[in-house]
Design a protein that fits this description.
Elements (H helix, E strand, L loop, with lengths): L1 E6 L2 E6 L3 E5 L8 E4 L2 E6 L2 E4 L8 E11 L3 E7 L4 E7 L2 E11 L6 H24 L14 H9 L5 H5 L3 H11 L11 H9 L3 H10 E2 L2 E2 L1
Antiparallel strand pairs: 1-2, 1-5, 3-10, 4-7, 5-6, 7-10, 8-9, 11-12
Length: 219
């Protein structure tokens, strides 16, 4: 029996007892995690395909360790501009082991109920965001915060550097995970510190900090 499941924005073909390296997950080593976005199941030749996910199916795994991937060199150069920049990057990863694949019986209905109840506050936040857009900061200046991540923060009411600086990194990760599973792998450990420097206008210190980052983690 195997399944194709989405984990931290990536799709994996997994089977019981298989070890997989995924983008960094929020959780301690030894803890269990469950993924209910199962796209396909094959149970001894009986194939089930979701639309897009299979109702009630889930994959349970155990976090074995947190680690970094191999270093990747990122080199940027502009012709005839005298500009070149070289950076190294090591992706923050988590090693997990698949413990079980359930074709049905996962508690997905409760999650839907929670999202429905939370829909109203999110709608209010989205309505409030345009009013504050004129005073909002460009959150994309935070290393690791792309357009989607910045949009998720604004929708959650964090539209300025000062607000992000006062928010704990774990809360920022929770906001991104709720906004989209594709944002759950982003490491936010230094975001409050970066936002604090940006809020105070210390751009040179911010650049120095960002140059020291490796996979979102300060060296």
């Amino acid at each position: 029996m195997y399944a194709i499941v989405e984990i931290a924005g990536q799709q994996f073909k997994v089977a019981k007892d298989q070890k997989v390296y995924v983008h960094r997950l929020q959780g301690e080593e030894g803890s269990e995690v469950s993924f209910d976005n199962v796209l396909l199941l094959d149970d001894n030749g009986s194939v089930s395909i979701g639309a897009p996910a299979i109702e009630g199916a889930a994959v349970t795994a155990k976090i074995l360790s947190h680690l970094k991937g191999d270093k990747v060199i990122v080199f940027k150069k502009k012709r005839r501009k005298g500009y070149q920049k070289k950076n190294g990057h090591r992706q923050a990863l988590t090693e997990i082991q698949i413990e079980s694949i359930a074709a049905s019986g996962a508690k997905k209905a409760t999650k839907k109920a929670v999202t429905k109840k939370a829909a109203a506050p999110k709608a209010e936040a989205k309505k409030a965001a345009p009013k504050k857009s004129s005073k909002g900061d460009d959150l994309k200046k935070i290393e690791g915060a792309g357009p989607k991540a910045a949009e998720a923060l604004v929708n959650a009411g964090l539209d300025t550097f000062a607000k992000v600086a006062k928010t704990e990194a774990s809360k920022l990760s929770e906001i991104l995970s709720e906004a989209s599973s594709r944002l759950s792998h982003i490491v936010t450990d230094t975001w409050p510190k970066q936002a604090g420097l940006a809020a105070e206008g210390k751009w040179d210190e911010l650049k120095e900090l960002q140059d020291r980052l490796d996979g979102g983690i300060e060296k």
